[in-house]
TrEMBL record:
<keyword id="KW-0597">Phosphoprotein</keyword>
<feature type="domain" description="Response regulatory">
    <location>
        <begin position="3"/>
        <end position="119"/>
    </location>
</feature>
<dbReference type="Pfam" id="PF00072">
    <property type="entry name" value="Response_reg"/>
</dbReference>
<protein>
    <submittedName>
        <fullName>Response regulator</fullName>
    </submittedName>
</protein>
<feature type="modified residue" description="4-aspartylphosphate">
    <location>
        <position position="52"/>
    </location>
</feature>
<dbReference type="GO" id="GO:0000160">
    <property type="term" value="P:phosphorelay signal transduction system"/>
</dbReference>
<dbReference type="InterPro" id="IPR011006">
    <property type="entry name" value="CheY-like_superfamily"/>
</dbReference>
<dbReference type="InterPro" id="IPR001789">
    <property type="entry name" value="Sig_transdc_resp-reg_receiver"/>
</dbReference>
Length: 121
């Protein structure tokens, strides 16, 4: 079964994202911040990581950098999630090592296709 880690500090966004992913048949684990995400990936392997870029304490780019150093996640596709989409952000996240970028609020009609495209690649 495909396993996805969602790193998101907003409880409503987390609930929506997890509910959608589970309804598509994915196994989902959660982390509320960067520190928790790093603990989770040390013990688990994932097929995809959805990473909020505006996390408390350690932002998404810092977490992404650390993922690249961990054996379990160095080759795992990471997709940036952000509510503050500015022009050029997509390039910034891709250049930092993200496989892609999803703007929040999530478009529930496109979300399944978007996620499956990253999992299948």
């Amino acid at each position: 079964m495909t396993t996805i880690l969602v790193v998101e500090d907003n409880p409503m966004n987390m609930e929506l994202t997890v509910d959608l992913l589970e309804s598509y048949g994915y196994e989902v684990m959660q982390a509320e911040d960067g520190s928790q995400a790093l603990e989770v990936v040390e013990k688990n392997a994932f097929d995809l990581i959805l990473l909020d870029m505006q996390l408390p304490k350690m932002d998404g780019l810092e977490v992404l950098e650390k993922f690249k150093e961990i054996e379990n996640t160095k080759d795992t596709p990471v997709v940036a999630l952000t509510a503050h989409a500015m022009r050029g952000d997509d390039k910034k996240f891709i250049n930092a090592g993200c496989a892609g970028y999803i703007s929040k609020p999530i478009d529930i009609h496109d979300f399944q296709q978007t996620v499956s495209s990253y999992v299948e690649n």
